[in-house]
């Protein structure tokens, strides 16, 4: 990390970080979208004007403001305006609907709710009123505006809870995760340091800004003084022209994004689809080793993958200068200040980037051990070089006849099979075995039909133990995924293929 970036990383609050960066490089761009450019100086100036407009609406330090907005420059301005006031903000993924949004509004006791109006064919304003939301206002093309002279001083400390993020809530109501300005700055600082970025880079945000990756990534821009392209709607190959036009050097998001870029590259052999691209980076879902090797070999760029979660936006990250073996098979190393403890295989964390807990005190009590380490629910181990290897989640361990089987081990092997585009391995209830191993496969276009004998013969040849071999194969057109980082929703597969769900 450069001396300047290191100094900026000591900022007490996000607003202090904005002010310090704007003073250093006011005319350099920070956000690019379509034909619009926002500089660091304009980010500070416009955010203060929006903060004044919000103040006129009644937003004060500590006021809870929920917002459900797409990845737009206006969204970033609103978020930093709230940070300027010292409000408590609760970002909600724009794809969520009545159940999740209603829960978030009630649990956070939001006093205001910013929505985009009608967006992508859905009327968010109507939903907000249907849910009885308070202080509903639209913040898409226009934002509240006012004279910054009316504003109180910005917050002086960054250790108070001012952020409520929501876990995906795939099997139950989402959890409200409590963050501070300092925990978000710590996460972004760790990411920036690990990726070895410079002011000459151009990044990209192809994920929802309301995701925990939003501030994580924006902190990185503020620390190093480089811009990122924002995608309100991301799709390939349509987005490639924008990547090329802005000379993007760093892209990614998650494993699903790597796969999408790789598929486009394979459709254009001999042509680098983004000539300026030097690095794909991300996290949020397991990365098969073969995907790393394919990206490096076929796209001609580096791939660094990391490990993060809503509760801890950045835990470990691959170093672009690390060995191919470590980049392919590990999640990288933790930065300074992040403690990792392995207890009977369970990964536990302690450090400044770790959240303060959950809205529900009972959930907080269950999530932390007696030494203050967050219990992640992920299973893994540390290598002799300090790299973290994840082998699955506690809930993703299949117990067959009393033996623990890692779904990830089988998935990594199957990703190397030419007739497998993507795969999820799940455990299904079985009266005789407790659970049986089921592989759910998404095949690439034109691939020959895959059978269970084909699949088990391949895994045997790869050296998989016999007791781990799948006993069931299901072929699907597309694996179910969430709308944030495109994670596979295994609970939907279990519901679909369990005996009671068929």
From TrEMBL:
| Coiled-coil residue spans | none
Q: Which residues form the signal peptide?
A: none
Q: Where is the AMP-dependent synthetase/ligase domain?
A: 19-349
Q: Which UniProt keywords apply?
A: Ligase
Limits of the AMP-binding enzyme C-terminal domain: 409-482
**Entry's InterPro entries?**
AMP-bd_C, AMP-bd_C_sf, AMP-binding_CS, AMP-dep_synth/lig_dom, ANL_N_sf
Single GO MF descriptor: medium-chain fatty acid-CoA ligase activity
One biological-process term from Gene Ontology? fatty acid metabolic process
- Write down the superkingdom of origin: Bacteria
Q: Which family does it belong to?
A: Belongs to the ATP-dependent AMP-binding enzyme family.
Q: Please state what the protein is called.
A: Cyclohexanecarboxylate-CoA ligase
Record the organism: Streptomyces purpureus
């Amino acid at each position: 990390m450069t001396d300047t970036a290191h100094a900026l990383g000591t900022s007490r609050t996000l607003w202090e970080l904005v002010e310090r960066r704007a003073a250093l490089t006011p005319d350099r761009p920070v956000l690019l979208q379509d034909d619009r450019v926002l500089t660091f100086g304009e980010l500070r100036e416009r955010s203060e004007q929006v903060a004044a407009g919000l103040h006129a609406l009644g937003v004060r330090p500590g006021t809870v403001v929920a917002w459900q907005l797409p990845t737009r420059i206006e969204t970033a301005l609103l978020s930093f305006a709230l940070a300027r006031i010292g409000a408590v903000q609760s970002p909600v993924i724009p794809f969520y609907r009545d159940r999740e949004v209603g829960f978030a509004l009630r649990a956070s006791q939001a006093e205001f709710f910013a929505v985009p109006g009608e967006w992508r064919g859905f009327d968010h304003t109507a939903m907000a009123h249907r849910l009885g939301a308070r202080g509903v206002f639209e913040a898409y093309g226009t934002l509240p505006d006012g004279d910054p002279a009316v504003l109180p001083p910005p917050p002086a400390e960054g250790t108070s809870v001012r952020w409520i993020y929501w876990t995906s809530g795939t099997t139950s109501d989402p959890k409200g995760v409590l963050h501070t300005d300092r925990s978000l700055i710590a996460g972004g600082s760790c990411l920036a340091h690990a990726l070895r970025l410079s002011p000459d880079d151009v990044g990209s945000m192809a994920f929802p800004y309301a995701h925990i990756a939003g501030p994580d990534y924006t902190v990185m821009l503020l620390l190093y003084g480089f811009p990122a392209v924002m995608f309100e709607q991301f799709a390939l190959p349509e987005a490639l022209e924008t990547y090329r036009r802005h000379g993007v050097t760093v892209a990614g998001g998650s494993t699903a994004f790597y796969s999408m870029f790789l598929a486009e590259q394979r459709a254009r052999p001999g042509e680098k689809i983004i000539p300026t691209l030097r690095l794909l980076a991300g996290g949020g879902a397991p990365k098969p080793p073969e995907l790393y090797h394919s990206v490096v070999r076929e796209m001609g760029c580096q791939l660094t993958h990391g490990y993060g979660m809503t509760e801890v936006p950045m835990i470990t990250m691959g170093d672009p200068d690390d060995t191919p073996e470590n980049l392919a098979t590990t999640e990288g190393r933790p930065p300074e200040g992040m403690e990792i403890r392995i207890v009977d295989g369970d990964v536990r964390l302690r450090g400044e980037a770790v959240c303060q807990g959950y809205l529900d005190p009972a959930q907080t009590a269950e999530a932390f051990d007696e030494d203050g380490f967050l219990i992640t629910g992920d299973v893994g181990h540390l290598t002799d070089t300090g790299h973290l290897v994840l082998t699955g989640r506690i809930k993703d361990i299949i117990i067959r006849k009393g033996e623990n089987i890692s779904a990830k081990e089988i998935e990594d092997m199957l990703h190397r099979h030419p007739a497998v585009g993507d795969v999820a391995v799940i455990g299904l209830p079985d009266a005789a075995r407790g659970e049986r191993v089921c592989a759910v496969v998404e095949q690439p276009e034109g691939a020959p039909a895959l059978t269970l004998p084909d699949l088990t013969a391949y895994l045997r040849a790869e050296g998989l133990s016999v007791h781990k071999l799948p006993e069931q194969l299901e072929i699907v057109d597309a694996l179910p995924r969430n709308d944030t980082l495109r994670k596979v929703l295994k609970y939907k597969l279990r519901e679909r293929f369990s005996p009671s769900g068929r």
